Structure formats: structure tokens, C-alpha cells
């Protein structure tokens, strides 16, 4: 049998777990795509964006096993995960990543190849 302080501790822990679960479900339901906004070339660096389009070009980097995918005119950098993707020119994709400027040109960097999905 639990003592009075132990019962309070169990109730407190259960309440915290329920609160975290409610927060997680609320965030998942009411903030789709993790808060990503539609991609635009005038966004600042470091913004989480989503982008949908057609694969126009696939370029493997000379070192590192990286992949640069041109999706409807926007370069998308896939670091180190090029071998995990099975994209072809003409595929319709949707992706999520972070905006960055590289050599004066805006691009999207995806954290993981799973952030790119064929539609």
C-alpha cells in the first residue's frame, strides 16, 4: 500500500505525463509539418520550409556522397543520403528542409532523405 506522499508523487507524475501527451497531440494536430512554411526565395536563412514540385535534375557531388536535386527550379541539398533516395527526373515530390544561401543562391537543405517524399 502506498503512503500519502507516495500517492501524491504518483498522481503528480501521471499528471505530468498526461500534460506532455496532450501537448504533443495538440502540436501534431494543430501545427502540421512541424510549423514549416511554403518555400519562397525571399525567406531568411534558417527557416523551416516545405516545397512541392517536379524533379528537374539530379547531381551527385564529387565528394561526400551528397546529392543536389533541382525541384521546380529550387536546389535541394541532400547531405550524405544520396544512396537512400530513388528519385528520377520527372518525379513529383514534396519535401521539408531548412533554407540556406550557398554561393549567393538560395537552396533548401533536408536533414534526412526521408524528408523527401514522392507524391
Structure description:
By secondary structure, the protein is of the alpha+beta class. The protein has 2 domains: 4-30; 35-118, OB fold (Dihydrolipoamide Acetyltransferase, E2P) (Beta Barrel), CATH 2.40.50. 23% of the residues lie in helices and 37% in strands. It has 1 helix and 7 strands, in the order αβββββββ. A 5-stranded mixed barrel has the order 2-3-4-6-5. β5 (92-102) and β6 (105-109) form a beta hairpin.
The CATH homologous superfamily of the largest domain: Nucleic acid-binding proteins
Describe the sheet with the most strands: 5 strands, mixed, barrel
CATH C-level name of the largest domain: Mainly Beta
The CATH architecture classification of the largest domain is Beta Barrel
- The global form is elongated
The span between the termini is: 56 Å
> How many DSSP E strands?
7
The CATH topology annotation of the largest domain reads as OB fold (Dihydrolipoamide Acetyltransferase, E2P)
What's the mean pLDDT score? Answer: 91
Provide the structure class: alpha+beta
* Number of continuous helical runs: 1
The figure for the number of domains is 2
Please specify the SSE layout and strand pairing:
Blueprint: H1 4-30, E1 37-38, E2 48-60, E3 67-71, E4 74-78, E5 92-102, E6 105-109, E7 116-118
Parallel strand pairs: 1-2, 4-6
Antiparallel strand pairs: 2-3, 2-5, 3-4, 5-6, 5-7
Features of this protein?
119 residues, alpha+beta, OB fold (Dihydrolipoamide Acetyltransferase, E2P), 23% helix, elongated
Amino acid at each position: 500500500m502506498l503512503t500519502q506522499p507516495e500517492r501524491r508523487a504518483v498522481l503528480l507524475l501521471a499528471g505530468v505525463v498526461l500534460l506532455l501527451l496532450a501537448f504533443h497531440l495538440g502540436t501534431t494536430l494543430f501545427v502540421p509539418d512541424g510549423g514549416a512554411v511554403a518555400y519562397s526565395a525571399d525567406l531568411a536563412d534558417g527557416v523551416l520550409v516545405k516545397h512541392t514540385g517536379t524533379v528537374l535534375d539530379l547531381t551527385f557531388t564529387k565528394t561526400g556522397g551528397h546529392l543536389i536535386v533541382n525541384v521546380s527550379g529550387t536546389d535541394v541539398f541532400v547531405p550524405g543520403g544520396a544512396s537512400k533516395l530513388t528519385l528520377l527526373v520527372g518525379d513529383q515530390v514534396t519535401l521539408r528542409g531548412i533554407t540556406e544561401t550557398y554561393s549567393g543562391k538560395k537552396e533548401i537543405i533536408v536533414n534526412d532523405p526521408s524528408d523527401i517524399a514522392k507524391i
